[in-house]
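Can anyone check this?
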Amino acid sequence: TVKNIECRDITVSDRNGACIRQEGSNLTLEHVYFHSSENGVLEASNKPSKILIYNSRFEQLGRLGRAHGIYTNTAELYIYDSMFIASKSEGHEIKSRGAVTEIHGSILASLSGVDSRLLDISNGGRLVVSKSLLQQGAVSSNGQVIGYALEGRKHADNSIRLAENVFIFDRIGYNTMLASDEQDVDTMISRNVLIGDARMADIDVSNLVYKDRSA
């Protein structure tokens, strides 16, 4: 468990440095501020593991599209009441390869960062995002807000739940709310507010769609 820590200016010669490099089992972060580095957290464990993040802020992270706000390889990831904002150098705010990724009550926002996807669920699995704000910035390098299983599926349980969120699509150009590998996946997208110009996934009438911020 790591609490009340600020970490900044982490860089290494292979361009994949991290405030925390997680190689064992289980990590809890509470009220940490990781910023202005390559990765915030880089996980590469061969053991069953969970990463829990509470009330924390990850900002100005990424390098050359290979370092990200957080990058998990096998761990389940659970995020609560946290901020992942302004990733840089085409990094994702969050890149997760584990079987479970859950995000609740949090903010994922490009702001003015030249980031890539807000959320990259590279190998599928169970994705849940609820009561959160997701903002795609005007200068994001990637038109896809969420990527799902775009690097091949590795998990038995594959499902997507997006509920009671606010999505803001500020990027100029052709954008996609949810890009997947186009295989069948159990998907539920309900009670969200969607603002801006983007290709939507299959959404039901419980979602509210506005053409722009003024609307």
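Reply from J.R.: I decoded it. The chain has no helices and 24 strands.
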